[in-house]
Amino acid sequence: MRKYRYVEHTADVEFVAYGADMGGLFRNALLAMFDTAADIRRLSRQRTRAVRFSLEESSDDPKELLWDSLQDALSKASAKGLFAYRVQSLSVRKTRRGVALKAVVLGRKGSPECAKLDVKGVSKYDMGVKKAGRHYEASIVLDV
Protein backbone atom coordinates (compact mmCIF):
# COMPACT_ATOMS: atom_id res chain seq x y z
CA MET A 1 0.00 0.00 0.00
CA ARG A 2 1.31 3.45 -0.83
CA LYS A 3 1.90 5.84 2.06
CA TYR A 4 0.55 9.01 0.44
CA ARG A 5 -0.01 10.74 -2.87
CA TYR A 6 -0.22 14.36 -3.84
CA VAL A 7 -3.40 15.65 -5.48
CA GLU A 8 -3.73 18.61 -7.87
CA HIS A 9 -4.72 21.77 -5.99
CA THR A 10 -5.18 25.30 -7.31
CA ALA A 11 -3.18 27.27 -4.74
CA ASP A 12 -1.90 25.04 -1.94
CA VAL A 13 -0.66 21.47 -1.51
CA GLU A 14 -3.15 18.64 -1.11
CA PHE A 15 -2.39 15.01 -0.37
CA VAL A 16 -4.17 11.81 0.53
CA ALA A 17 -2.51 9.68 3.22
CA TYR A 18 -3.20 5.97 3.67
CA GLY A 19 -2.80 3.50 6.50
CA ALA A 20 -3.76 -0.06 7.35
CA ASP A 21 -4.78 1.29 10.76
CA MET A 22 -5.13 4.71 12.38
CA GLY A 23 -1.52 4.69 13.55
CA GLY A 24 -0.26 4.05 10.02
CA LEU A 25 -2.56 6.75 8.66
CA PHE A 26 -1.28 9.37 11.11
CA ARG A 27 2.36 8.36 10.52
CA ASN A 28 1.97 8.67 6.75
CA ALA A 29 0.14 12.01 7.01
CA LEU A 30 3.01 13.40 9.09
CA LEU A 31 5.56 12.07 6.57
CA ALA A 32 3.67 13.64 3.66
CA MET A 33 3.69 17.00 5.44
CA PHE A 34 7.41 16.68 6.26
CA ASP A 35 8.14 15.71 2.63
CA THR A 36 6.24 18.80 1.42
CA ALA A 37 8.47 21.10 3.48
CA ALA A 38 11.84 19.43 2.94
CA ASP A 39 13.76 16.66 1.18
CA ILE A 40 13.30 14.00 3.87
CA ARG A 41 15.56 11.51 2.06
CA ARG A 42 18.45 13.98 2.05
CA LEU A 43 17.81 14.88 5.69
CA SER A 44 17.82 11.23 6.77
CA ARG A 45 21.30 10.78 5.20
CA GLN A 46 22.84 13.85 6.83
CA ARG A 47 25.36 13.30 9.58
CA THR A 48 24.22 16.21 11.74
CA ARG A 49 22.67 15.42 15.10
CA ALA A 50 18.98 14.50 15.02
CA VAL A 51 16.73 16.31 17.50
CA ARG A 52 13.74 14.50 19.01
CA PHE A 53 10.48 16.13 19.94
CA SER A 54 7.25 14.65 21.26
CA LEU A 55 3.64 15.02 20.24
CA GLU A 56 0.78 14.24 22.65
CA GLU A 57 -2.74 15.02 21.54
CA SER A 58 -6.24 13.79 22.31
CA SER A 59 -9.65 14.53 20.85
CA ASP A 60 -13.13 13.11 20.63
CA ASP A 61 -12.82 13.06 16.81
CA PRO A 62 -10.09 11.42 14.63
CA LYS A 63 -10.20 14.32 12.14
CA GLU A 64 -9.58 16.86 14.90
CA LEU A 65 -6.82 14.66 16.34
CA LEU A 66 -5.11 14.54 12.94
CA TRP A 67 -5.36 18.32 12.50
CA ASP A 68 -4.05 18.95 16.03
CA SER A 69 -1.15 16.51 15.53
CA LEU A 70 -0.08 17.96 12.18
CA GLN A 71 -0.29 21.53 13.50
CA ASP A 72 1.65 20.59 16.65
CA ALA A 73 4.42 18.91 14.63
CA LEU A 74 4.64 21.91 12.30
CA SER A 75 4.76 24.38 15.21
CA LYS A 76 7.34 22.47 17.23
CA ALA A 77 9.65 21.92 14.25
CA SER A 78 9.40 25.59 13.32
CA ALA A 79 10.03 26.81 16.89
CA LYS A 80 13.16 24.65 17.08
CA GLY A 81 14.35 25.66 13.61
CA LEU A 82 14.16 22.06 12.37
CA PHE A 83 13.12 20.17 9.30
CA ALA A 84 11.17 17.14 10.57
CA TYR A 85 11.96 14.04 8.54
CA ARG A 86 11.03 10.87 10.45
CA VAL A 87 8.40 9.54 12.84
CA GLN A 88 10.44 7.47 15.27
CA SER A 89 7.46 6.09 17.19
CA LEU A 90 3.72 6.65 17.08
CA SER A 91 0.66 5.21 18.75
CA VAL A 92 -3.01 6.06 18.36
CA ARG A 93 -5.37 4.54 20.88
CA LYS A 94 -9.02 4.77 21.78
CA THR A 95 -9.87 6.45 25.05
CA ARG A 96 -13.08 6.94 26.98
CA ARG A 97 -13.37 10.42 25.48
CA GLY A 98 -12.26 9.59 21.92
CA VAL A 99 -8.75 8.99 20.56
CA ALA A 100 -5.23 9.92 21.69
CA LEU A 101 -1.89 10.13 19.92
CA LYS A 102 1.65 9.90 21.26
CA ALA A 103 4.56 10.26 18.86
CA VAL A 104 8.27 10.99 18.77
CA VAL A 105 9.48 12.89 15.70
CA LEU A 106 13.05 13.42 14.49
CA GLY A 107 14.22 16.65 12.93
CA ARG A 108 17.47 18.21 11.83
CA LYS A 109 18.78 21.69 11.26
CA GLY A 110 18.95 21.26 7.52
CA SER A 111 20.83 23.29 5.01
CA PRO A 112 18.83 25.56 2.66
CA GLU A 113 19.08 23.05 -0.19
CA CYS A 114 16.95 20.64 1.89
CA ALA A 115 14.02 23.08 1.88
CA LYS A 116 11.14 22.62 -0.56
CA LEU A 117 8.09 24.71 0.42
CA ASP A 118 7.26 26.87 3.41
CA VAL A 119 4.29 25.09 5.01
CA LYS A 120 2.40 27.75 6.96
CA GLY A 121 -0.39 25.60 8.36
CA VAL A 122 -2.89 22.80 7.95
CA SER A 123 -6.28 23.74 6.53
CA LYS A 124 -9.47 22.31 8.02
CA TYR A 125 -11.23 23.00 4.73
CA ASP A 126 -12.13 19.72 3.00
CA MET A 127 -10.11 17.72 5.53
CA GLY A 128 -11.44 14.23 6.03
CA VAL A 129 -10.62 10.90 7.67
CA LYS A 130 -12.46 7.78 6.60
CA LYS A 131 -12.30 4.02 6.53
CA ALA A 132 -12.11 2.87 2.91
CA GLY A 133 -12.52 -0.88 2.70
CA ARG A 134 -9.71 -2.47 4.69
CA HIS A 135 -7.64 0.68 5.20
CA TYR A 136 -7.95 4.31 6.27
CA GLU A 137 -7.59 7.45 4.18
CA ALA A 138 -7.17 11.11 5.05
CA SER A 139 -7.38 14.09 2.72
CA ILE A 140 -5.34 17.10 3.83
CA VAL A 141 -4.61 20.55 2.41
CA LEU A 142 -1.49 22.41 3.52
CA ASP A 143 -1.32 26.19 3.34
CA VAL A 144 1.96 27.09 1.65
Structural notes for this entry:
By secondary structure, the chain is α+β, with helices and mostly antiparallel strands. The chain has one domain: Archease domain (Archease, Possible Chaperone, Chain: A, domain 1), CATH 3.55.10.10. The protein is 28% helix and 45% strand. The protein has 3 helices and 7 strands; from the N terminus they run E-E-H-H-E-H-E-E-E-E. The protein has helices spanning 22-37, 40-45, 62-80, and strands spanning 4-7, 13-19, 51-59, 83-95, 98-108, 121-132, 135-143. The strands form 2 sheets. Strands 1-2-7-6 form a 4-stranded antiparallel beta sheet, covered by helices on one side. Helix 1 (22-37) runs parallel beside helix 3. The longest helix is centred in the middle third of the chain and has 19 residues, at 62-80. The model has no long low-confidence stretch (mean pLDDT 95).
